[in-house]
Amino acid sequence: MKKFLIFFILIIGLTIFSGTFYNPLGPTLLPAAGMYINKVPTLQTSYWRNIDQAQILVLKEQADFIVLPVALGVELINKGANYKLAGISLWKTFYLISSNEIKTIEDLNGKRIVTLHGPGQTADVILKILKKMKNIDFDIVYITSGPEIIQLLASGKETIAALPEPFVSLAEVKTKGKIKVQMDLQDLYADLFNLEDKRLPIAGVFVSNKKFKENPNFVKRVLNAYENSANNFYKNNFNDAVNYVFKIMQTMPKPVLQKAAERSEIYYTKEIQEITDLYLKNLFEYGAISKLPKDLYLNY
């Protein structure tokens, strides 16, 4: 009887102190690699594969922690999702690519730009702001997958794309350098708003309000582990992080992942309010998000 009680108490303890962490497949898996390799006790780590799945995980509160594009996470909060933004880990990863030379934004007039389909997708947000602010007439065409966009570029059916890594590096490798980076979208955003700081708060960790209320110490432990993974493991064990992402993604060649990682800016910080408030203000002003959320940030 005594052993049964001890076992029952342990099970209850695990239930109370367990949580779920979801990360998308792609460059944002690199800062999480250390935490996925060296497991946090009682934390279940998993992946989301598309925007629809991410939205369901959040709106049904099935994820205690989830890495999301900031604009998407904010819009889900605007729709009633009970989450807060804990910190940002991805600051640079989006580029405009083409086999044609593009020197200025005016060169985009009358063109078609293909990009990934999904609400709150960073490249889409920046392109919409560019169109509205500079009154440049180009069409934004949405495609569901990165590899499909690369095939369209390689075949000449499309000529310009706005993509994140690792698809940018994959396009360069697949076309043997025919397709090249023409514009850094982080630089473009900074130039549009005359910002000296060219960082863009692209993706961050959103935390369930319910989980933080239930067990703030567990939340802090997970976020500290994520910070250590992004800022220490990733930098000191770069090859291990890349190997892990290669193993999980499978379809992405390792040299492509290495190139993509080197061209992305990755580090985690919770000191994000000033730069993120400005980003969201700009998005709201140009209709990329429906409203500015109140009480967005998790204080931990």
UniProtKB/TrEMBL annotation:
| Domain SsuA/THI5-like stretches | 94-235
InterPro entries according to UniProt = SsuA/THI5, UCP027386_ABC_sbc_TM0202
Give the protein name, as stated in the record: NitT/TauT family transport system substrate-binding protein
Q: Which organism is it from?
A: Marinitoga hydrogenitolerans (strain DSM 16785 / JCM 12826 / AT1271)
